[in-house]
Amino acid sequence: MTTHRPRITVAALLLALVLTGAGALAGPVAAAPSGRHALRPWLNLAASLMREFPALGSALQAIVGPSSVDYGSDGRLSVLVLGSDFRPARNSERMDAVMVVTINPTTHQMAAVSIPRDTGALPLPDPNDTWKGKVNSMFSHYRAIAGSRNGALAMMRNAIAYALDVEIDYVVFARFTGFDFLVDQVRYVPIDIPAEIRDARIVDDRTKPHGALFLAGNAVQLGGANATKCYANGPPVNWATVSPCYRALLYVRSRHGTVGTQNNSNYKRDKRQQTFLMAALVRVVHLVNANGPALTSLRDAALTRTDDFYTDLPIANNADLLALFNLFNGAQGQPFLQVTLKPKKYAHYIGSGKYALKLDVVRALTHQWFAPVE
Prior knowledge:
The protein has helices spanning 10-19, 39-52, 56-64, 138-146, 149-164, 176-185, 248-253, 266-289, 295-303, 318-329, 359-369; strands at residues 77-84, 95-103, 110-114, 170-174, 189-193, 197-199, 212-214, 217-222, 258-259, 262-263, 309-311, 336-340, 347-351, 354-357. It is of the alpha+beta class. It has three domains: 10-64, no CATH class; 77-170 and 310-324 and 332-369, Nucleotidyltransferase, domain 5 (2-Layer Sandwich), CATH 3.30.420; 176-306, no CATH class. The strands form four sheets. Strands 11-4-1-2-3-12 form a six-stranded mixed beta sheet, sandwiched between helices. 35% of the residues are buried.
């Protein structure tokens, strides 16, 4: 005998939404939460439905209400992602991860472009600005002008958009501690590590010897601050006796030593950061689709770390949160374009440890990857 799975019609979905709470996203009537947490049970239901019936995404968004997510004049969402090397014991703050991520809301294809930390001589939107430092010190330059972190981040977003000749709609900023904290909120991020990484110089716990070993493997579970600290036992290091490292922060920071049989580098680190970001997005979508932590829980946790994490993405409103979830949920299985603007193709050496972008080559690429949505 053939068993047919019951199908949920749009009419039944609308009825369910009416029954689960008058007006706002109240969730099940029997235990309806209140305030900002009202979306949690509803989002888990919505995610399950979208997994079974992807076409319902836009219908669900229409029911929730309009989103204020701004796709700009090019019709796509582009975000500047910045990773800070700030530590309390240091008096400086450099952006050692400078990445622009874009997604086409129609096709859901994503692309990431990273500007290496030693890139200098970027063209600036203010013709009177004579600053010629490396891109990782641009934040400090703009903070001195703006007088605030958020003002500096806005100026940096405009400057990177000007250099790449693209629209950048929003910015996301995280320090080491914020990164660790966010990874812990999803317990771990699974990463495919194609080649073993041996970095004898990276530091996790200053009370122990430097170094970290990442073994090659598929879906390696990398954690945040709750993961065991990593260290070696040299120098010289006997790698056969080093315990594998499972700290996500060290994985995205490592730039010394070897990757398989090749030298590690800033450029390999940049690509590793891009891959990790995509894997983290996949992890969040998977957890929500599997009725795990609700989006509101992750959002609320992030917003408690105001010193360590900042974004001007409109995530406080539940309609916006669902819109962003729909956007990245649709990116699963789509090609992910990645590039680091490294020499010799995209940059050339100009002395003093700095590289200048070949703007014609770089902008030919960004004009293609960030093309307006038709």
